[in-house]
Amino acid sequence: MSAAAALSIPALLAAQGTAAGKCAPDNVGIKVPAGFCVTLFADSIPGVRSLAVAPNGDVFAAVQGRTGAGVVALRDAGNTGHATTKQQFASGFTSSQIALFDRHVYTEAAQTRPQGANASAPAPTIAIVRFPLKAGELTPSGPADTIVSGLPGAPGHVSRNFTITPDGVLYVNVGSPTNSCQSPDRKAGAPGANPCTELDTRAGIWKFDARKKNQTQVTGVHFARGIRNAVGVAISPVDGKLWAMQHGRDQLSDWRDKLGLDSAAAARYSAENPAEQLMQVNQGEDYGWPYCYYAADQHHLVLAPEYGGDGKKTAQCAQKHEPVATFPGHWAPNALFFYTGSSFPARYKNGAFIAFHGSWNRAPEPQAGYNVVFQPLKGTATAGKYEVFAEGFSPSGSAGRASAAGGYHRPTGLAQAADGSLYVADDTGGRIYKIVYTGK
Questions:
Q1: Per the structure, how many domains does the chain have?
Q2: pLDDT in tens, 39-77
Q3: Which residue intervals of 8-64 are DSSP H helices?
Q4: Pairing state of beta strands 36-42 and 431-437?
């Protein structure tokens, strides 16, 4: 473990001496609603993905990347509005998820494949581990326990995001290995496997006991299926139910003939479809992947072209579970968070904030979705249309994948600060923003 170190803060903000309750004059380039402002809580943490906040305000961050950064702990010792201490909490693995529960830090622990490794070599498996944590400490008080081991890794979606209920139920996302269960994957015109046996071990959510060591996917409960990749998962504070955001499929433009579209129209259709989905997830339910996708123009699930769909047929999709709310295609939701604080206006209470990572495949439309959205909710129903809450993380959105070299900042994690403010992690820019309500 490295010793605690002072955290780098951009010279501009340091010179201004931004303190608690005050924000940068330009809100660090982020646009937020009237009455809110933004500070830069931390920077220089490339790959920061998920955040968890201790009762004393310390922030624990899961970090992805080949450096094996694992988990970093941050502290604002002087109530300055910025992290003044950065401590390596655990290392030697890459992580996309973190949570504090039962006096432990829970995190995903994935081993990275060495650069230049044989592509045919078995992919490393992924575990959910926990480290004991004493109140007020920034390092573990003992060795890690393995809670779940042997979760499948590559190919495909490898982030094993999870959430934990107050009574210790652990829900883990195991994303699909393919785009739409084709073989070979993503080959234009290749039909989908029927039945799709990927659904036995992937593209779903598994349930475990957060306090029990040495579980495996086989000993867990296959809680829900047909969810391509639920990177954002959270527990509702209203009724304790599980909610998830799904990353929708790609490449519908490969099926222009089945969709009855010319090349240009198919590209536009593929840019807007499928819609990203917010789902309230219950045990035993099936949400449709790979057989179905949510067609934005039809406003419901339709049969995928790999299975004979034409953009309108529903067939078996009429029996699948529809989402609670939908969002533009390919925005890539990477975090789901229910606000429970009291510093924001009352209308935000128990509503959902969603961090969208942004698109790479909306051509010929502009790339989009680098933002944080607020979805008003009332129980398990929407209470109005979604609102873009924070934006300006990226430039105008050129073609291709957004990168740090291009000046992009991509939201990927959300957490509630001890004072009721909202933290937003940015893995591409390596930043953590803090959004504060001042009422001014």
A1: 1
A2: 999 999 999 999 999 999 999 999 999 888 999 999 999
A3: 11-16
A4: antiparallel
